[in-house]
Amino acid sequence: MILRSVEGDITAVVADAIVNAANPALLGGGGVDGAIHRAAGPGLLEECRTLDGCDTGDARATGAYDLRARWVIHTVGPVWRGGGKGEADLLASCYRRSVEVADRLGATSIAFPAISTGVFGYPRRAAAGLAVRTLRELDPEHVSSCVLVAFDPETLADYDELLATNP
């Protein structure tokens, strides 16, 4: 799978699937979650209401409605509690499960935000390293392209540095 990074708005990314850093209810919120719900339109919320939520570290798929993607994959990242509560395993699971769901749908491209680094408080650099390491370990059947979408220049710099190193 080819990994690359860009700075920008994930709602404007063209990919088969974009990943939503969601809350467990999947009913919208702030940050990436709120932006995706606003850009997708009311159909996304209606479909999310049928999913009965999502556990931390897991992922669920919906249609993308008014977005430029085919699907939205909702994943719930861990809240940072100092690093001793299994946060790294849960965050890695978000990336793995999202790619598994995208692969099952037949998606060939996927775009990720920096999961858990906003209001959930996961340290940006540690989250970027975990994302890159986890995604490099995967060998999906269909997904061949993955873009890490940074909301700010600092996160982009982290991704760029990590992607430039050998696995």
What can you tell me about this protein's structure?
There is one protein chain. The protein is of the alpha/beta class and 167 residues long. The chain has a single domain (2-164), classed as 3-Layer(aba) Sandwich (Leucine Aminopeptidase, subunit E, domain 1). 37% of the residues lie in helices and 19% in strands. The protein contains 5 helices and 6 strands, in the order ββααββαβαβα. It has helices spanning 31-40, 42-48, 87-105, 124-137, 153-164; strands spanning 2-7, 17-21, 59-63, 71-75, 109-112, 145-150. The chain has a 6-stranded mixed sheet with strand order 1-6-5-2-4-3, sandwiched between helices. The mean pLDDT is 96.
Q: Fraction of residues in helices?
A: 25-40%
Q: How confident overall, as mean pLDDT?
A: 96
Q: Alpha-carbon distance between the termini?
A: 13 Å
Structural class: alpha/beta
The CATH architecture term is 3-Layer(aba) Sandwich
Any idea what the shape is? globular
In the sheet with the most strands, the strands line up as 1-6-5-2-4-3
Strand content: 15-25%
Look at the structure and name the CATH superfamily: Leucine Aminopeptidase, subunit E, domain 1
Radius of gyration: 14 Å
Using the coordinates shown, work out and report the CATH topology: Leucine Aminopeptidase, subunit E, domain 1
Order of helices and strands: EEHHEEHEHEH
Annotation field: number of helices: 5
Instruction: Sketch the major β-sheet.
Output: 6 strands, mixed
The tally of strands reads 6
Low-confidence stretches: none
CATH structural class: Alpha Beta
